[in-house]
UniProtKB/TrEMBL annotation:
<keyword id="KW-0486">Methionine biosynthesis</keyword>
<keyword id="KW-0028">Amino-acid biosynthesis</keyword>
<feature type="binding site">
    <location>
        <position position="231"/>
    </location>
    <ligand>
        <name>substrate</name>
    </ligand>
</feature>
<feature type="domain" description="AB hydrolase-1">
    <location>
        <begin position="57"/>
        <end position="359"/>
    </location>
</feature>
<keyword id="KW-0963">Cytoplasm</keyword>
<dbReference type="InterPro" id="IPR029058">
    <property type="entry name" value="AB_hydrolase_fold"/>
</dbReference>
<keyword id="KW-0012">Acyltransferase</keyword>
<feature type="binding site">
    <location>
        <position position="355"/>
    </location>
    <ligand>
        <name>substrate</name>
    </ligand>
</feature>
<dbReference type="GO" id="GO:0005737">
    <property type="term" value="C:cytoplasm"/>
</dbReference>
<feature type="active site" description="Nucleophile">
    <location>
        <position position="161"/>
    </location>
</feature>
<comment type="function">
    <text>Transfers an acetyl group from acetyl-CoA to L-homoserine, forming acetyl-L-homoserine.</text>
</comment>
<feature type="active site">
    <location>
        <position position="354"/>
    </location>
</feature>
<comment type="subunit">
    <text>Homodimer.</text>
</comment>
<dbReference type="GO" id="GO:0009092">
    <property type="term" value="P:homoserine metabolic process"/>
</dbReference>
<dbReference type="InterPro" id="IPR008220">
    <property type="entry name" value="HAT_MetX-like"/>
</dbReference>
<dbReference type="InterPro" id="IPR000073">
    <property type="entry name" value="AB_hydrolase_1"/>
</dbReference>
<dbReference type="GO" id="GO:0009086">
    <property type="term" value="P:methionine biosynthetic process"/>
</dbReference>
C-alpha cells in the first residue's frame, strides 16, 4: 500500500543515502483523457551523482509490480529487495562512479507515487475516483521529474515489460531527451492477447466482493483474493510452458493435503505462493490502473505508424526480446527494429519466458556493459 509522504511542495526525502526514496511534487498533470490529476507526487531513488554537464543520467524503468528500489535490501518503503540486484553500484554495469542512476515509482503505482491508494485533497484515498492514466501520461509525469532534477537528456533509458513500454514512449514523446534507449521484453503497442490477459486479471480483482468498487481502503479487508488470482493468471504468462513442465511436471505436493483428497499439484502450490506474495505487497487498485495503462500502450497513437513514431529519434535504440517470451513474443521487438533504421536487436536467451528480463541478470549486465555503458568511455 502507498506510504504517504508529508504534504508539501518541492522535493523531500526519507534520507540522503543512495537508494533511499525521495519524493517530488510535479504539480497538476493534464492527462490524455482530458482529466487533470492534481498535486502529483512521484517517489524516486537515485544512485551516483549528476555531473556538471548533466549528461550522465540513466533512467531505469520498472515493470508492473516493481518499484523504484532497483537494488538494495528490503526496508522502510521497500517491501522487497531490489528487483535487478547488483546492476547499480560502484564498478557495476550501471557504474555509479560514472553515472547518476534514477528510478521512479510509476504514476498510478503504490510505492510512494500518486496512485489510487494515495490520499486526495479531501484526505480520503483516491480509490474509485482515481482517473485512467496511460503510459504516455506516466512518461509525461517522469519528464516533469527530470526537469526538477535538472536532467535535460538521459544518457540512457532502460526498462523491461511495462518499463520497456515507458522507455519506448520516452523515445516517441521526447526524442531529443534520450540518447540511448534499451527496451527489454517489450513492444510498441499492447497486443490483443496482452489486453485479453489483462481483462481476465482486472475482472478477478473487480469481482472480488471485498473490492467495494475500489473504495476498500478503510475496510477490514481488501480484494486480496482477487489480486492473488490476477497474479496467478499473469504469472503463467510470465513463464514458458517448457519451464513449467521442466520444473513441476505432474508433481504433487503431499502437504498440506488437498481438499476432498484431490492432489495438490506443485505448480498450483507455486502459483499460490506467488499470488499470496503479491497480495501481501501490492495494492489491487494500482494493479488494475497499471494494467489498464499497459492496455493503452501504443506509441503510434496520433503518430501514424511505428516508423513515423520512431523517426524523430536520432539516438540509439536497442530492443532485447526474451527468446521464450510468449507474452511479448520476439516478433514484436523485430517489428521495432524493422521500423527504425539502425536499431539493434539483442536477444536474451532463457527457458523462463517473459520474466527472463528479470531472471537473466547476467545477460542484462552484459548487454549494459557492452552496448550501453562502454561506448561513453571512448
Ligand atoms: C525479487 C522480487 O520479487 S523484487 C520485488 C519487485 N519485483 C519485481 O519487480 C518483479 C516481481 N518478481 C517477479 O516477477 C518474480 O518474483 C521473479 C521474476 C523475480 C521470480 O523469478 P525466479 O527467481 O525465477 O523465482 P521463482 O518464480 O522460481 O519463485 C521463487 C519462489 O517460489 C517459491 N516456490 C518455488 N516452487 C514452489 C512450489 N512448488 N510451491 C510453493 N512455492 C514455491 C520459492 O520458495 C520462492 O519463494 P520466495 O520468492 O518467497 O523465496
Ligand atoms: N514479473 C514482473 C514482470 C511483469 O511484466 C512483474 O511482476 O513486474
Amino acid at each position: 500500500m502507498t506510504t504517504r509522504p508529508p504534504t508539501s511542495s518541492g522535493s523531500w526525502r526519507d534520507g540522503d543515502h543512495p537508494g533511499r526514496r525521495k519524493f517530488v511534487t510535479i504539480g497538476d498533470l493534464d492527462l490524455e483523457s482530458g482529466d487533470r490529476l492534481p498535486d502529483v507526487v512521484l517517489a524516486y531513488e537515485t544512485w551516483g551523482r549528476l555531473d556538471e554537464t548533466g549528461d550522465n543520467a540513466i533512467l531505469v524503468e520498472h515493470a508492473l509490480t516493481g518499484d523504484s528500489h532497483v537494488v538494495g535490501p528490503a526496508g522502510p518503503g521497500h517491501p522487497t529487495a531490489g528487483w535487478w540486484p547488483d546492476l547499480i553500484g560502484s564498478g557495476a554495469p550501471l557504474d555509479t562512479d560514472e553515472f547518476f542512476v534514477v528510478a521512479i515509482n510509476v504514476l498510478g503505482g503504490c510505492q510512494g507515487s500518486t496512485g489510487p491508494g494515495a490520499r486526495a485533497a479531501d484526505g480520503r484515498a483516491w480509490g474509485s475516483r482515481f482517473p485512467r492514466v496511460t503510459i504516455r501520461d506516466q512518461v509525461n509525469a517522469e519528464a516533469r521529474l527530470a526537469d526538477e532534477l535538472g536532467i535535460r537528456t538521459w544518457h540512457t533509458v532502460i526498462g523491461g515489460s511495462m518499463g520497456g513500454m515507458r522507455t519506448l514512449e520516452w523515445v516517441a514523446s521526447f526524442p531529443d531527451r534520450v540518447a540511448t534507449a534499451v527496451a527489454l521484453a517489450a513492444s510498441g503497442y499492447a497486443t490483443a492477447e496482452q489486453i485479453g490477459w489483462s481483462q481476465a486479471q482486472i475482472l478477478a480483482i473487480r469481482n472480488d466482493p471485498w473490492f467495494a468498487d475500489g473504495d476498500y481502503y478503510d475496510r477490514a479487508q481488501g480484494p486480496e483474493a482477487g489480486l492473488g488470482i490476477a497474479r496467478r493468471i499473469a504469472h503463467i504468462t510470465y513463464r514458458s510452458e517448457p519451464e513449467l513442465h521442466q520444473r513441476f511436471d505432474r508433481d504433487v505436493r503431499d502437504e498440506p493435503a488437498g481438499d476432498n483428497g484431490r492432489p495438490r499439484y506443485a505448480v498450483e502450490s507455486y502459483l499460490d505462493h506467488h499470488g499470496g506474495k503479491l497480495a501481501g505487497r501490492f495494492d489491487a487498485n494500482s494493479y488494475a490502473v497499471l494494467s489498464e495503462a499497459m492496455n493503452s500502450h501504443d506509441i503510434t497513437r496520433g503518430r501514424e505508424g511505428l516508423r513515423e513514431a520512431l523517426a524523430p529519434f536520432a539516438g540509439r535504440l536497442i530492443v532485447a526480446p526474451v527468446d521464450s517470451d510468449r507474452l511479448y513474443p520476439p516478433r514484436l521487438s523485430e517489428e521495432l527494429v524493422e521500423a527504425k533504421p539502425g536499431a539493434e536487436l539483442v536477444t536474451i536467451n532463457s527457458l523462463v519466458g517473459h520474466d527472463g528480463f528479470l531472471t537473466e541478470v547476467e545477460q542484462v549486465a552484459d548487454l549494459l556493459r557492452s552496448v550501453v555503458v562502454a561506448p561513453r568511455r571512448h
